């Protein structure tokens, strides 16, 4: 889909783009081809696309897979898409807020791939919603802000490492990332973007019950970045349980959360899930996203 086609559709329908919906459309054919290549699509694949916009990615996805479920919040764009793809049986178009849809419908996405140029303001909560659950998509190829992409890919002891890196990486392995210049979008956003590829871990690092503990650990651990992890975790667990868990994970009591690797947090979660030494505050209090 060329830039001139986009301008033409918007002008003839008198559509003014909404900044708060992150309406920056990808018109660069090379970048779309790179995204499609990263998705490694087979003819049997089912693809979830969030925020199809005017459909530049949708039109490249459709010939390469069995089905695309595209969720778009803007009714005006849903109308454009319904017309553009009227003869395309493989497209299922849904007019909805994708974040609300994902939260309200705990569907099994494990046989799906997510391929999307996400609305930037809600890209992180959408990815956490999809990737932290037990039946998340097998592969995620998501275009988002470069700065968020860097956080998704980050390893311990780097500036970008934090809560988001761990919430995603506990179930997904980062496989690749390429930068997409702002000039590839219409209108050009103020920041550069990147496309990340995440692949669901074949062998999960933790059980679902342990992941509940893991989430609680990291949310508490990163609640005050400069404070020592041990001290923060005393809010939720007894000193005895923490001392034992830190010893198993080979962690010094002075360490801060940003220095603790994914595997070490996983070890802490495994140990603390088995000890049941949680303070009276119930696990249900863990604020989810
Ligand atoms: N995929 C298109 C492309 O690459 O040109 C459009 C991408 S644009 C960055 C983000 C799209 O997400 C817009 O079409 C916007 O209307 C839509 N959008 C924004 N918030 C949404 C939400 N909560 N649920 C579904 N779609 C949303």
Unreliable spans: none
Largest sheet: 7 strands, mixed
CATH topology of the largest domain: the name is Rossmann fold
Helices and strands, in N-to-C order? HEHEHEHEHEHEHHEEEHHHH
Quaternary state of the chains: single chain
Which ligands accompany this protein? S-adenosylmethionine
Q: What structural category arises from helix and sheet content?
A: alpha/beta
N- and C-termini, Cα separation? 36 Å
**Basic shape:** elongated
The overall average pLDDT, rounded, is 94
CATH homologous superfamily identity of the largest domain:
Vaccinia Virus protein VP39
Please indicate the percent range of residues in DSSP E strands (runs of 2 or more).
15-25%
Architecture overview:
The protein is an alpha/beta fold and 289 residues long. It has two domains: 3-200, 3-Layer(aba) Sandwich (Rossmann fold); 208-288, rRNA adenine dimethylase, C-terminal domain (Helicase, Ruva Protein, domain 3, Orthogonal Bundle), CATH 1.10.8.100. Helix content is 38%, strand content 17%. Strands 4-3-2-5-6-9-7 form a seven-stranded mixed beta sheet. The chain has a two-stranded antiparallel ribbon with strand order 1-8. Helix 3 links the parallel strand 2 and strand 3 (67-72). It is elongated and about 70 Å long. Bound molecules: S-adenosylmethionine. Residues 21-26, 50-53, 56-57, 71-74, 77, 97-99, 117, 119, 122 line the site of S-adenosylmethionine.
Give me a quick take on this structure.
The chain has 289 residues and is α/β, with parallel strands linked by helices.
Brief descriptors of the model:
single chain, 289 residues, alpha/beta, Rossmann fold, Helicase, Ruva Protein, domain 3, 2 domains, seven-stranded mixed beta sheet, binds S-adenosylmethionine
